[in-house]
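User: quick one, fold this
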Amino acid sequence: MGIVAARKGNWGVGTDVIFMGLGATADRPAADVDFNQTAFALYGMRRLNAVAEATFGVRVNGLDGGLTFKEQSVVPAGTGLSQSKWWVDPIVGLRLHSNSARRVNATLYGEIGGFGLGSDLEWQIFPVADVRVLERMSLELGYRWLSMDYTTGDGSDQFTWDTLTQGPVVGFKFQF
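Assistant:
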């Protein structure tokens, strides 16, 4: 996961990249399960005042899954299934932050998106504590909740991804 942002005056651009490589091996039936989730956001930013910033953009979401049987059972060994789904969500958000002159700062980022154009609804809440360790470098500690509710197709062709990905975040911030 990584976030990169560039600002000049009241305007800015940024990216937010998430990649999760997940997988497992099962003994019964003997199989390998491989699953990857990718999310790439590209957004613009507009400073509203000293502590608030509006964001707007798109998030490209991707899921790739595969199942490969290792031994012959009901199906021949080496038989595999795979599927991929990709969709794009419009997103809007708000970033609130405390006074940057302090050694310890707080940021709260929230967004909402999808609006039925990609996901039915997606949302994110991302609070972060920022501790300045050097003049232009900070340690960031936070927690991220990212929810997506996406459905496409009908009947036996229906695909649904309704999930909440969450967890602690530790990172470094460099300012140039």
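User: anything notable?
Assistant: The chain is about 0% helix and 75% strand.
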